[in-house]
Amino acid sequence: MVKVLLFTGFVANYGGISKVAKAYRHLEEKGLDPKIVTVSGYLSNFPKFNLKPDFVIPQGKGFEENTRNVLEGLDSCSYDVMVSFMQSTYGPKHAVQNNKRVVMVAGGLPREYTKGTAYDQEVYKKIDAYVSTCHFSWQIPEEVKAKYPGMTIKVLSQPINEKQRTNLRSLRFTSADNLNQRRQDFIKMRGSNYDGSPIVAIRMSPDYAKTKDTFLPQHEMDQVQAHLKSLGQTLSSSGQRMYLVTENEPVADVMQNAFSGNHNIEVLSVPFSPYKDSLELSAIADINIDRATRNVVQSEIAAVGGYTIVSPCPKNYMHEDITAEQAAKEGLIKHIPVGTPDIGQKVLDYLGTKHYHD
Questions:
Q1: Nearest 5°: CA angle at 247, between 7 and 166?
Q2: DSSP three-state, residue 154
Q3: Greater confidence, 13 or 310?
Q4: What are the C-alpha distances in Å from 151 to residues 123, 289, 311, 328?
Q5: DSSP assignments along 11-60, one per residue
């Protein structure tokens, strides 16, 4: 039997661990026994997907220590094939050095393509493939591919198994009454009463909305904060009654401050909600507002028949701007760029339009 190692080190967000969970269970369906290896500082989302790593590598304080820890840790792991769920090359470097097959899986293409760093081009050139996941046929522009000479790039769908496929299909609403009841139940479970007002879901991982201890450089962090503040203020000034739902405290905090006493808007923060609740929110929200098009949440929203606006943020991050443009042209989403004046009203105006219902 082929020994498959799923390396998730330095990946802790919802999308990354969701991909791991789906790949893990798909491989199990195929009769394999994959092993999960991660790094000690990146365990937060494993319980949400009922996953437990088989081996945990101690996290270091910088590039050199992390490289050493990962290489030494993986020396004790027996595997034939590595699937690495990250952009950086810590794990794949071990596979390349030991003549193992390796595939890297990530939403975006590498932020860097350099030598002797966590984004080592010499490693990228020797892997079997770098897979950028997307739920539709994203056409990577040639000028983007040219930034990664020697790297084999493929665009493939998010990993999924048959049980999950069946579950996602079951969440599509069958009638207006069915959808209304599910919305009532969802809001009631969050301690409020549903009155038919729009449910607006802000889909953004907490690490993007933090103002400290984040991986984003300062200028990108400022962009995210400005976008959330503008969105909140312009939704508030519309006078529209609504439920604003977010799955993390950093986004909820920005929105609460932006609404500044507006009692027409109820902010429902459901941090660390179970996976099934995240899927239900994707299906029952009047609109999901996301910062990216190729992420796992977008693939799930599409699968359950949900409604989406994408405002790529930070700008020019992982080529999400050009992806959103293509998805909008194909009618898959509504694209409202960051910085659009009165963006909140633009969101509300979209509800009920022909494009929305199509």
A1: 65
A2: strand
A3: 310
A4: 9, 33, 29, 28
A5: --SHHHHHHHHHHHHHHHHTT---EEEEETT--TTTGGGT---SEEEPP-
Q: In a 10 Å sphere around its CB, with 0-12 CB exposed, 13-18 middle and 19+ buried, how is residue 90 labelled? A: buried
Average pLDDT over residues 110-134: 95
C-alpha dist (Å) from residue 123 to 11, 103, 151, 278: 19, 11, 9, 35
Distance CA 74, CA 79 (A): 9
pTM (two decimals): 0.87
Adjacent-strand bridge partners of 268: 245
In this structure, which amino acid lies at residue 149? Answer: P
Q: What are the residues whose beta carbons fall under 8 Å from the beta carbon of 93, sequence distance 6 or more?
A: 67, 70, 71, 120, 123
Tell me what percent of the residues of the chain surpass a pLDDT of 90. 69
| Distance separating the N- and C-terminal Cα atoms of the chain | 47
Q: Which of 57, 103, 58 is nearest to 80 (CA)?
A: 103
Number of H helices, E strands in the chain: 15, 13
SS3 323: helix
